[in-house]
Amino acid sequence: MEWRPIETAPRDGTVILLYDNVPVVGQWVRHRAYAHCWAWMMKPLPKADLLIALEPTHWMPLPTAPEPSPIKPARMPRY
Question: CB pairs under 8 A, 24+ apart, for 12-17?
Fold first, then answer.
């Protein structure tokens, strides 16, 4: 995947990889503190948000998650 100009990024709330001097997972949000902005956001508590506004220059879709590997039973060492 290649980095794309931020002007082409989806603004529908899709979670994407943003570049703002470092890669950051974020999305376009509407928030009471900001009209609209690119942000990294999490909800640590049911009634509280943590939002960090970003000024990214580029974006790319998130890669597909890997398939989960089967859980193997732990082996006990022999003494």
Answer: 15/62, 16/59, 16/60, 16/61, 16/62, 17/59, 17/60, 17/61, 17/62
Contact 57, 20 (CB under 8 A): yes
Q: Concatenate the DSSP letters of all residues of 6-51 into one string.
A: GGGS--SS--EEEESSSEEEEEEEEETTEEEEEEEEEEEETTEEEE
User: How far from the centroid of its chain's Cα atoms is residue 63's Cα?
Assistant: 11
Q: Is the pTM of this model over 0.85?
A: no
Q: Cβ distance 10 to 56 under 8 Å?
A: no
Model pLDDT for residues 10-67, shown as the tens digit of each residue: 988 888 898 988 888 888 877 666 666 777 655 555 555 666 778 889 999 998 888 8
Distance CA 37, CA 11 (A): 9
